Amino acid sequence: MTVVTRFAPSPTGFLHIGGARTALFNWLYARHHGGEFRLRIEDTDRQRSTPEAIEAILHGLRWLGLDWDGEVVYQFSRAERHAEVARKLLSEGKAYHCYATTAELEQMRADQRAAGLPTRYDGRWRDRDPAEAPEGVPPVIRLRAPQEGETVIEDDVQGEVRVQNAQLDDMVLLRADGTPTYMLSVVVDDHDMDITHVIRGDDHLTNAFRQTQLYRACGWETPSFAHIPLIHGPDGAKLSKRHGALGVEAYEEMGYLPEAMRNYLLRLGWGHGDDEIISTEQAIEWFDLGAVGRSPARFDFMKLDNLNGHYLREADDARLAADCAPRISKALGRDLDDSEIALLARAMDGLKQRAKTLKEISENAAFYFDRPSALTPKAAKNLDEAGRSVMAELLEKLRALPDWTEEACEACVREHAEAAGLKLGQVAQPLRGALTGSHMSPGIFEVMALLGREECLLRLREIPTQVREE
Ligand code: GLU
After folding, report:
1. Is the pLDDT assigned to residue 104 strictly greater than 90?
2. Which of 81, 115, 130, 354 has the fewest Cβ atoms nearer than 10 Å?
């Protein structure tokens, strides 16, 4: 049997972090088994589905590198097929017409509530003679669900879960206006798309019972189910925006790398011993449903930052430069040219060592392309009167330097410190301030070599006096 999984988002909002994890698990499961990963956009809610949300979902999946097999299936376009299945069940006696009006059903529920009973359809048209059908009332089609026994699901994550059939009423399959219900559409689509494994959030666990009943009525094989616990905030409460309940594009914007995101999402609810850093290749090799935890995973920005820092340090410098260039261009208000992007790539190793995100790298790299016009308060302190006079003397020595290499610059600065009876920091810190505007930067000799002689001398001649906020 070929494993076929799917991701079936409703395009009523962006691809949020929980959805991205569901997509990743389905993708990994399919790739692990050499199977297929399909994408179905569940756009049947015409009021709430938007093209922007569809675009955001496709973009988010592409950004995460979760490629799907075959064409995207749009659920709404298959409504006629869904209706056809409902009508077939009707003709086989496995479903029936129900003519109860909305008012009548409301009354029924009110009576049930008053009697302290659970509200559910009471089967009033289940065995009634269709000849009794009222004139002019368009009926819905309901499933003739089993009333005795129980429906059992062997869930790959939750284990065996069961419900008494008496607790489930006869669900509507086709509405009076001929449109299929969500439950019908999902089952028909999963069947027609040959889905073998349904892996999704455990907020859908209760749907799985009804869906199982529907599969049986249709005479179709039920797929395996795996319901994954939802993601919670670091405090264990429902995930809030502040704690990470954001669209995938927000993570892209914040400067996380897709491979770090994949690693992080993988660890949200799945584990392999104590391994924290797990490459995608390794994840494909190891992924299984048995290791998905049963309790909610907790989202933790600090862990994500640490992982991202790791992947930044591993990443190719030219790639990171290409990733950061648009961000820097935007901040500068002009496009970096090719030679500047090449400079950025050369500077990348120094920049990425301490950074957690592309955003941070981009902010820290700006001084390479934009002469500082103000100093951070700490840099200003380092560039007090004494610091400035040290710089004036250093400027003269640097001017006379025959080669402008990292080593030559370092030797010159060290010599100057020694000759003036200063500690290295007393020269290097004001120098950092003069060249970068900040008290923090990559190694100052590397910065000197990368900026080049002309630029360094110029910045030393024109040290800003203004102080900016940090
Ligand atoms: N469309 C549903 C959702 O976005 C998922 C349905 C399913 O996975 O069966 O929550």
Report:
1. yes
2. 115
